[in-house]
């Protein structure tokens, strides 16, 4: 009885000490077992099958490597194009920025050039006046010619318009009210001009300074009508 117990414990210890077999090792053992049972002819057939599989896999590998090379070249080309596009976009941005700076810097170049011509005419008129030998009527006519050149430059060439006339409706967007008076006006209108206004196309350069006639309010109108009625009755 004692001997049987010892044998069972020994078998248990032997089973516990047996190392675990890796799945690959088990599979290899199964393959070896199958091969050992094959005849020579069967081994030749299996070998030929393996050669065909090997050749097929080798061709597929070569094809895959070739595709990988092509894709690698394609990625490199696309990346190079991307870098060139970025560089071109940066150059365009810098050129645009420089053009905007130059435009802001030299925007008034042509206007100044035109004004210098008129300045030259004024300078000649002044120099001529300093000689003391002038005809006033001719001198006045020359100044008026210079003024006309200046006005033509502003109004015809550069699109400046002058506005602000008596009787115009008052518009707070383009008129600056310096004074106001109440009276028998249908609407708020300009009754006097202190300084003309100027616009460049649709933008006000400076507003016209004006005096505004304002319609009487209801209380004032009622009081005035009552006074007129009393005077009429008397």
Q: Can you walk through the features of this model?
A:
The protein is α+β, with helices and mostly antiparallel strands and 234 residues long. 67% of the residues lie in helices and 15% in strands. The protein is built from 6 helices and 6 strands, in the order αααααββββββα. The strands form 2 sheets. The protein has a 3-stranded antiparallel beta sheet with strand order 1-4-5. A 3-stranded mixed beta sheet has the order 2-6-3, with no helix packed on it. Helix 4 runs antiparallel to helix 5 (136-157). The termini are far apart.
Separation of the first and last Cα atoms: 158 Å
- Overall outline: elongated
The biggest beta sheet is recorded as: 3 strands, antiparallel
> Architecture of the domain at 160-234 in CATH?
Roll
Q: What low-confidence regions span 5 or more consecutive residues with pLDDT below 50?
A: none
The helix/strand class is alpha+beta
The number of helical elements comes to 6
Number of strands: 6
**CATH H-tier superfamily of the domain at 160-234:** Head domain of nucleotide exchange factor GrpE
Write down the secondary-structure element order.
Answer: HHHHHEEEEEEH
Strand content range: 15-25%
Spatial extent as radius of gyration: 53 Å
In terms of quaternary structure, the protein is single chain
Instruction: Give me the side-by-side strand order of the main sheet.
Output: 1-4-5
Query: What is the top-level CATH class of the domain at 160-234?
Result: Mainly Beta
Average of pLDDT: 83
Q: The CATH topology of the domain at 160-234 is what?
A: Nucleotide Exchange Factor Grpe, Chain A, domain 2
Relative helix content? 55-70%
